[in-house]
Write a structure and sequence with these properties.
With 183 residues, the protein is an alpha+beta fold. It is 26% helix and 12% strand. It contains six helices and four strands, in the order E-E-H-H-H-H-E-H-E-H. Helix 4 runs parallel beside helix 5. It starts with a strand and ends in an 8-residue tail after the last helix. InterPro entries: His_Pase_superF_clade-1, His_PPase_superfam, Phosphatase_SH3-domain.
Length: 183
């Protein structure tokens, strides 16, 4: 889906390398040309772009008003939010607008190639849930959350402890109208 431009070094004049632009693309869709192959496709993807990676860890102090209401000052932040009031956004960052849009583009590419996942599995991290939700809603299906798909606990080391972020429960996700299957 993405095209990346890089240079290939070839021999130009004697002793002088010549840079030749080469375009490379993701060709994952070629693997599913045969309809029988679609049933065997396993697509693994990362979550979309997250707010704390763009605005830094202090984003939460600059994007919320004194009363705790979300007041986005950056054009890449969502204007409408879907997270639970008890979410710990400083520990479990949500997607940017671009991150959500990227997930919808992936869903659209799957749809155009007539690929309908029989199962969408997500990490409990909010950014992954939002990515899975965008894809599931576009494809008119649901997703499930697998608790074991989060980062290793030592990534969250603080003072010798391993405090994993407080992830949303399935009930809280449903209250935010996520397309999560709670079974």
């Amino acid at each position: 889906m993405c095209a990346f431009m890089h240079s290939s070094v070839q021999q130009g004049r004697p002793g002088v390398p010549k840079l030749v632009p080469v375009v490379t693309r993701s060709f994952w869709y070629r693997a599913v040309r045969d309809p029988d192959d679609r049933s065997r496709l396993v697509l693994v993807m990362r979550a979309g772009e997250r707010i704390d990676r763009i605005l830094g860890n202090e984003w939460i102090h600059t994007q919320f008003g004194r009363n705790g209401e979300f007041k986005p000052l950056d054009g890449n932040l969502p204007t409408r939010v879907r997270w639970h009031k008890d979410a710990k956004l400083d520990e479990d960052s949500p997607l940017t607008t671009l991150g959500r849009h990227s997930a919808v583009l992936i869903a659209r590419a799957l749809y155009k190639r007539q690929i309908r996942p029989s199962l969408i599995v997500s990490s409990p991290a909010l950014r992954a849930v939002q990515t899975a939700n965008a894809i599931a809603q576009f494809l008119h299906t649901t997703f499930v959350v697998e608790e074991g798909l989060c980062e290793p606990g030592h990534w969250y080391t603080q003072g010798g402890k391993f405090p994993l972020p407080r992830f949303l429960t399935t009930k809280e996700m449903k209250s935010c109208h996520f397309a999560v299957n709670g079974n």
